[in-house]
Amino acid sequence: MMRQNESRVPEFLLQGLPIPPEHQGYYFILFLFIYLTTVFGNLLIILLIRMDIRLHTPMYFFLSVLAFNDVSLSSVTVPKMLMHLRTNHKSIPYSGCISQVCFLLLFGCFENFLLTVMAYDRYVAICQPLHYTTIMRQEICITLVAISWIFSCFHSLLNTLLLARVSFCGDVTIPHFFCELFPVLKTSCSDISLNDVVVLIEGGIFFYLPFISILSTYICIWATVLKKSSAKKFFKVLSTCGSHLLVVSLFYGTILEVYFLPSSSATNNKDIIASVMYMIITPMLNPFIYSLRNRDIKQALNLLIDRVKLCSQKT
Q: What are the φ/ψ torsions at residue 252 (nearest 5 degrees)?
């Protein structure tokens, strides 16, 4: 099969968000506020954890990595989307689109594995508290994060390289507000059967294994708690795991909505709204979910405020 210039189309056209033109200015302000809140909130979490020695524990180490990943995931799509809302110019270069797919797969897959690692950390803390410091040593925590990065890089590079060999013909319009793997593949005019097989097998494994691991971990946690049935113990575990469970529910709930319950509508507005949830809203909510009822984070924030006040008084 001859590969002509159609495999290197100069740019793609993004359909964008289903927003009337007269309302785009309002949504630009809204999404800009959400993005700035996402960046500030997650960077603040990282700063607090780095500054306060009391937060130098495995749980907060994983939380700081999650915060960094949330900033990265949101930054892949939101700045480009804001530019499209501001200028109404919705094209994206071929190289930019492929890069966007690559980084979305990387950070999305990494969050998948990181949530699994955080669930395991909670399991050890609750079910094996006497051995927690031995099992969750610093080198073990770093190794778990590194392995998650390696698997995520493999997942991203494999699918991106397979996408790069696909041909596109004529004007290519992607029915989304960013370059996502499935919508991009659907616009191809070449055989994508290999891509579909890899997505089904490798992508399915990388999704289901972490998801099933998290479910199994929490089944073990609650089974252990119920054996030692006491209201105080139950609420303590709920307080410890509640934030992580909420983040997991938001992340997997929207992922399932987009990829496993596809919309029958030709415009796929439901899928776009769900994508906004896990790509834009969830990264913004994560710092609030982990900090609003977290006494350690609040104490670290108060300490930072006191330091800032002290520095301002000296100057």
A: -75, -30
What is each CA distance from 229 to 120, 123, 243, 263, 302, in whole angstroms? 22, 17, 22, 43, 36
Rg (CA), the chain: 22
Closest CA to 48 of 64, 32, 72: 64
pLDDT digits (tens, 9 = 90+) for 267-288: 467 778 888 888 888 899 888 8
Cα–Cα distance measured from residue 296 to residue 306, given in angstroms and rounded to the nearest whole number: 15
DSSP string, 137-159: -HHHHHHHHHHHHHHHHHHHHHH
Residue in the block written with tokens 């670290």: 300
Helix-, strand-, coil-residue percentages of the chain, each rounded to 5: 80, 5, 20
Instruction: Please write the tens of the pLDDT for every residue from 181-205.
Output: 888 988 888 888 899 899 888 888 8
User: Which residue type is seen at 265?
Assistant: S
Q: In 10 A of CB 309, how many CB atoms?
A: 10
Q: Identify the helix (H) or strand (E) that includes residue 12.
A: strand 11-14
Q: Which neighbouring-strand residues pair with 173?
A: 13
* Angle of the 24-51 helix axis to the 58-87 helix axis, nearest 10: 160
Tell me the pLDDT tens digit for each residue of 206-216: 888 999 999 99
3-state DSSP call for residue 167? coil
β-partners of residue 24 are none
Identity of residue 136: M
Q: Are 194 and 162 in contact (CB under 8 A)?
A: yes
User: Which residues, at least 6 apart from 86, have a Cβ–Cβ distance to it below 8 Å?
Assistant: 28
Lowest average pLDDT, out of 35-39, 69-73, 219-223, goes to: 219-223
Q: What is the dihedral of CA 32, 33, 38, 40, to 10 degrees?
A: 110
* Alpha helices, DSSP H, located in 228-268: 231-259
Q: What is the DSSP letter of 117?
A: H
> 88: alpha, beta or left, given left = phi > 0 and alpha = psi -120 to 50?
left
